């Protein structure tokens, strides 16, 4: 799929050379405390191995990456080949400007072209902006996983969201 142009930036395929900026944005999310249970960003080879090849997207303004989105498989079992978990992060100072929406819209469209029929996301309930974004693009809440893990010694819940495609996997 070609680039999606939005005022001020383009949503394009992520390249390995984008990793340092992508990693920096991921670290911002880690340090903010409401994005992930992870405590550090992995090296490129681990990150690469843990995500699907397509789609991997960045929002780019010239040479600057403003945000990124990618999918991880939920299982290695073939029956789950069409189910993936969403990761989406936007640079701290660029949040609230529609970048997350542009990335997630494009991620949904490209995932369907790749035969993904279900997208899932686990979001901390305190991350209200992410919950609002996902819900606005057709994700529904399946439930809350209580005390799923700890961050800095504090138990955290996770809201489980799912979006079922109307295009892929309907046969």
Q: Provide the residue-averaged pLDDT.
A: 93
> Helix content range of the residues, please?
25-40%
The gyration radius over C-alpha positions equals 15 Å
- Strands, count: 8
What is the H-and-E element order? EEHHEEEHEHEE
Spatial shape: globular
| Strand-pairing-aware structural class | alpha+beta
- Taking pLDDT < 50 over at least 5 consecutive residues as the criterion, the unreliable ranges are none
Strands of the widest sheet, in order across it, are: 1-2-3-4-5-6-8-7
What separation lies between the terminal Cα atoms? 24 Å
Main beta sheet = 8 strands, mixed
Number of helices: 4
Bin the strand percentage: 35-45%
Short description:
Helix content is about 25%, strand content about 35%.
What does this structure look like?
The chain has helices at residues 19-32, 44-49, 99-113, 128-136, and strands at 4-6, 9-13, 56-61, 64-73, 83-90, 118-123, 140-151, 154-164. The chain is of the alpha+beta class. It has an eight-stranded mixed β-sheet with strand order 1-2-3-4-5-6-8-7. A hairpin with a 2-residue loop joins strand 7 and strand 8. The radius of gyration is 15 Å and the shape is globular.
